Each structure stands twice: as C-alpha cells, then as structure tokens.
C-alpha cells in the first residue's frame, strides 16, 4: 500500500478496497479510492494539504462549485469524488457563471493568510500596499533569482512600470489561482467542481488570463461572466507572465520562449 493510501485509510476511518491513480497529478499524487463500505473519495498529497482544504472550503462558501473536504491532516487531503465526464467546450456558460460567483467574494486585502506552493516553487501571499506592488513583489520579482539574468532584468524593468499598467486598487476578488482547464471538472454540460486551487485575493483578471493561456473561452463564457474594463488585453499579457515564469521554473527551458514573447509584447 502506498503512503498516500495509508493516509487515506487513517483519514477516512476504513479499509480501501480499490484505488486508481488519477491524471493531472504533475505536482502531487492523486488517488481515487473506494472504501470497504462503498464510499468513494479522492486522496491528494501536496505541499500543504490543510491550506488547500481551507481554500476549497472558502470557494464552496461563495456558492461556486467545489468538492467537499472530507478529512485532512498534515500529510494528505481527502475530498469528495465528483463526476467529470464531459468537455469544457460544452460548459463555457456554466464556467462563466461559476467564476462570476467566485470573483464576487471580496477579501480584506490582496493575498492570502498563508503561503502556498506549486511543488518546489513557493507562492508568497503576504499583502502589499497596493495591487501593482503585490503583483510586482509577490508574483514576478520573486522569480528573479531563479531564472536567467537577462530575463530577470527585463522582469525588473516591467515591474518598475507596473503602477502605470495595472489598476492601483481593483476589487480584491477571491481567485482560484490556477484556473486552467485541467482544474475544471465538467459533467453533462455543467461545471461540477473547481479543483486544485492556489487561491488568494486579487484582480479577477488574473484567473481569466490563466484560463486564456491554454484555452479559448467561447462566447457563452463572456455572456455569462460579463464584460471587462478596456485595456484587458495588455493586462492579460502581464498576468500571463506569472504562470509562464512558474512553468519555466517547474518544467524547464521549453517555456523560455513564452516568457520572452510576453515580455516583447509588453515592450520590455
């Protein structure tokens, strides 16, 4: 029995009779388990199971779809198994409604009460004086010591100009934080769950930029979510730098070209 399965038996209080590894666990192991009494659950390891549990609970409280937290300790998280047997292409309107609901929740400041991580890449969630400062200090410059020097200089140049490129005090929306299609469960044309969050409070457009990085939301998404303020295209490019830099650090030089292209689009 794997360490994760053993943790699951401890958390769920029973014997696992069947288990299956789930795809999508690039940074954490994922298991779908069936208990002796017939219960199903998803088990997940990770850098901070308790923090992820609190994020899922906050998301669920907004009314946005999220799996229920069944049990958690320092080693593992057990969550509700949710059906996911359909394509996001049939659920853009449902996703627009879900994110609109999520982003309506307002935080006291930008950030999150605890740090988090994408595997070995730390996520600094401490608050900052304003939004441009937060994004510069907590999302971009934190990578400078871990990327090639020429890219770091260009990132620094962009950060020196963010007060003129980003709104100073946008609505502090609850963000999913890793809003790509792989973290969106769909069944029968509806979004059934937002999973694997890296939540914090910030400009809602950060989630939308991440969504657009690997997908092309259809018209039904915009109709359900609503229009954005003018200038979104440039802000989207800035916000896309955050996941691009994370991917560069996690998965290597294959993502350097994406970072360079985004910086060139921003004129730095």
Task: Outline the structure in words.
The protein has 2 domains: 78 residues, Phosphorylase Kinase, domain 1 (2-Layer Sandwich), CATH 3.30.200; 178 residues, Aminoglycoside phosphotransferase (APH), C-terminal lobe (Aminoglycoside 3'-phosphotransferase, Chain: A, domain 2). The radius of gyration is 19 Å and the shape is globular. With 268 residues, it is an alpha+beta fold. The termini are far apart. The protein has a 5-stranded antiparallel sheet, with helices on both faces. It has a two-stranded antiparallel sheet with strand order 6-7. Strands 8-11 form a two-stranded antiparallel ribbon. It contains 9 helices and 11 strands. Helices cover 38% and strands 17% of the residues. GO terms for molecular function: kinase activity. It comes from Fulvimarina manganoxydans. Keywords: Kinase, Transferase. This is Fructosamine-3-kinase. Belongs to the fructosamine kinase family.
């Amino acid at each position: 029995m794997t360490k994760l399965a053993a943790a699951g038996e401890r958390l769920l209080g029973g014997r696992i009779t069947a288990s299956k590894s789930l795809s999508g666990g690039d940074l954490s192991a994922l298991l779908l388990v069936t208990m002796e009494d017939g219960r199903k659950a998803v088990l997940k390891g990770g850098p901070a199971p308790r923090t992820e549990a609190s994020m899922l609970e906050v998301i669920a409280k907004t009314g946005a779809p999220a799996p229920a937290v069944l049990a958690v300790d320092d080693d593992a998280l057990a969550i509700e198994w949710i059906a996911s047997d359909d394509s996001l292409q049939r659920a853009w309107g449902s996703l627009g409604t879900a994110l609109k609901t999520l982003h309506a929740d307002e935080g006291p400041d930008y950030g999150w009460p605890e740090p988090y991580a994408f595997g070995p890449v730390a996520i600094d969630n401490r608050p900052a004086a304003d939004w441009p400062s937060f994004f510069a200090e907590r999302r971009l410059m934190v990578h400078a010591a871990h990327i090639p020097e020429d890219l770091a200089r260009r990132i620094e140049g962009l950060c020196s100009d963010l007060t003129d490129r980003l709104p100073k005090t946008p609505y502090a929306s609850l963000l999913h934080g890793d809003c790509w299609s792989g973290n969106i469960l769909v069944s029968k044309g509806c979004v059934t769950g937002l999973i694997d969050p890296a939540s914090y409070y910030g400009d809602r457009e950060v989630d939308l930029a991440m969504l657009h990085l690997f997908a092309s939301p259809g018209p039904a998404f915009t109709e359900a979510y609503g229009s954005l303020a003018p200038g979104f295209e440039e802000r989207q490019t800035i916000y896309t730098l955050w996941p691009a830099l994370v991917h560069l650090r996690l998965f290597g030089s294959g993502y350097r070209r994406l970072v360079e292209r985004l910086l060139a689009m921003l004129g730095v």
